[in-house]
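Objective 1b. Sequence-to-structure analysis of diguanylate cyclase.
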Amino acid sequence: MSQAQVEVSEIHWLMDMFQTVDVGLVVLNCDYRIQVWNGFMENHSGLTPRQVRDRYLFDLFSEIDEDWLRRKCDPVVLLKNRAFTIWEQRPYIFKFRNYRPITGSAEYMYQNSTIFPLTDARGQVTHLCFLIYDVTDVAVSRIELESMNGRLKQLSKTDFLTQLFNRGHWEENLIQEFNRLQRYSHQSTLLMCDIDHFKRVNDTYGHSAGDLVIQHIADAVRKNLRATDIAGRYGGEEYAVLLVDTSLDQAAYFAERLRKSVEQMSIEYNGQLLKVTLSLGLAEHNKQMKDHRQWIEASDKALYNSKGNGRNQVTCYQAE
C-alpha cells in the first residue's frame, strides 16, 4: 500500500470515528457560527450537519445562555486555555432529551463539556471546539443518592406513626431553645399533653384503633401550630410542643384551642365514631431552671394536675 493510500485510509478511519464516537463534537468560528457537527450531535438534536452549517448557534439553540457562554469562551480565545463546564454547575449546554432506558427518570441529558481553542498556522485562534459528554448516568445516580440521604435524614428525626418529630430530635430543639433563653430575655412556653383514657381505647377497640387516634391527635396538633412552634411525639400517647417566644398567657390560648378541637373531633373506626379528649400542661421557662429537664418536669406536673382534676383541661404550672 502506497503512502498516499495509507494517508487516505487514516483519514477515512478518523472520519468514521468522528461520526460514531459517543461524544458530541462541535466546532464554531469566532462569530459562533457552526462549522462542524458530528453524528452524536445530529442524533440527539435531529439536525444534520448540512442544516446547521454556518448557522448562528444562539438562533438554533435559544436555551443556551448567550452571555454565560461568551464569558466562558472569551478566556479560551484570549489566553488559548481550555475551559470546562460540569453538570453540577449547569445541567447542560445543549438541551437534549434523555433517551437512555437506565436513566429514564431524567427528562434531559446531563452534560459535561470541554471547550478548547483551534489555531491557524500563525497561532491565531480562529475556531472553538466543544466536546459534549453525556453524564446522565452519573448525575442521576448522584441526585438519587443525595435525595435518599435527605429522606434518611428526615426519617431519622421523624416519628413514623405521627410524622411529628421523634423524641430525640424534639428534645435537641428544646435544649437549644433552653440555652438561648438562659442567655437572652425571651419568653417561651412548653406544652405537654396526653390522650385521656387511651388504654380504654386500646382495650376496647384494639391497637389499630389506638394508632388511628394517635394519628388524628397529631393532625390536630399540626393544624394548630404556628411556623415557629416545634411539636413532637414525646412517647406513647403523649405529645410535646415548644411554643417559641410565647408567654404563658399566649400559650394557654393555644392550648385551649387545641383542647377544644380534639374534644369536638369524631374519629371513624370500623363504622364506629370514637371520641377522645386531651389533658394539657403548660410551663413557662424561667432562669431558675438548671437544665431543660426541669422545664419538662414543670410542664409534666401541670399535665398531671389536669388529669388529677378531672382531665380534658389545661393547667399552667405555678412555681412553688
